[in-house]
Amino acid sequence: MHRLVPIALALVAAFVIASPAAADNWLPHPADATWSYSWSDSVWAPTPTTENVTVKSQTGASFVLAWTTGDPATPTSSGTVSFQDTDSGLNNTDWSSTPPPPSLPILCATASGCGNSLSSTYYDVIWGSRAPVLVEPLVQGETWTGQGGASNDVSATSTYLGQQPVTVPAFPDPVVAAVVRTKITQAGALGDPYGSGTRTVWWVYGVGPVKVEFDHAGGSGAPVTTSVLQSTSLTPAATPSDLDYFPLKQGLTQRYRWTNSKHMKQPEVEQVAIQASLNGTARFTVTSVSGPIRASASYGYTSRVGGVTNLWSASQATSLVKFPALGPKNAKLSNRRHFFTPLDLMNFGFNPVLPAYAAPGDTWKSPTSGPDFQAYGVTGSSVIVGTQTVKVPGGTFKALVVRSTLKQPGFPFGSGTRTCWFAPGKGLVKLVFKHGDGSTSQVVLIKK
After folding, report:
1. In 305-394, at which residue ranges do the beta strands (DSSP E only) sit?
2. d(CA 39, CA 266)
3. Domain boundaries, the chain
4. Quick check: helix, strand or coil at residue 239?
5. Is residue 273 within 8 Å of 289, Cβ to Cβ?
6. Percentage with pLDDT > 90 across the chain
7. Residue 72: its pLDDT value, please?
8. CATH topology for the 5-18+243-446 domain
9. According to the model, what pLDDT value does residue 76 have?
10. Cβ proximity of 136 and 305 under 8 Å
11. Predicted pLDDT of residue 188
12. How many Å is the Cα radius of gyration of the chain?
């Protein structure tokens, strides 16, 4: 039996960021893209208005859509909306237009200089939730809050309801849409309660919004604004999976049992809990329940278009187990990696832990420079080999299987093949790490 050894570890790891262009499939914007919508308000503008939308400009991850109504040569009204694709979703950065029809309610405290309007499709889309308009990755159970209006006097809470078939004139055969419902509140406008209500947007991957319905507050007989896509130059793309294989929900608690066939045959049981979560980033804590290691650790994870990544970790432990050393060779002994928790085994090597919209066949490789490589000195690759029904003490799950090959030169224990099973709504449920020294670490989710 080895003496108790106090060890402390702090790690800051940069995450792999996908190009923001990867975020644009929910509202693609090739230079020649066009959309035509029919917009109407059941009370204030019951006669449908045709809105023709084009791409006015784009620079890097930013782009501007322009719309006109009536004859393009002599438009009745026109406007622009500016967007930016980011690693966390689609943001609205600006808007401008000719004044709204005088028949519509005034959405400011005074009529003079009012910068608010709900007189077009995209004004309805961005109302109350400009950053983000649409969060990414879009997975089951996702909710987010936002503000809008010229004076940020509009607040909103959006909830992703899931994928549903939808039929519109542009697509007479049903297409799959991601449905987002938003509760919107505005107070103090002359036209109250027109600025408040419930908005539902149907987003089609590869096209953008195909239907918008705004049920304005005010009870029976209150206005309903509707916008429906009539035609477009774009073609729907295959909708990505919305299963959440790595939930970042505050309060989620899991318990794991961990063994190693050569170095730790007595099981180590540890509890993992999400203590805080905000805007797609969460803090995990790990505490020992029983076994030969006494560990206390915390980890930061974020979910972005670049995938689920480990941002940082900090751990401290006393241990009766002496695992073989880990590298990299050029790191000081005090900065070398250690395996204290199941999350250390899962994080080891390189980011991301999982790609966004993870699907069988996805592959990614280790970087050969940067913070991940400096911290671990590991080369290798990961692949999602498919889905598999896996049974562990904590239940039976249809899990996504991720296999990684890892090589840490000079350190067999830091080399080998790691297989992880991730279940929707649960996260990691099983891990098997076949180390280069001939030992095998196994982690399974257990019941509390």
Report:
1. 307-319, 363-365, 379-392
2. 67
3. 5-18+243-446, 29-232
4. coil
5. no
6. 88
7. 59
8. YmcC-like fold (2.40.360)
9. 84
10. yes
11. 94
12. 26
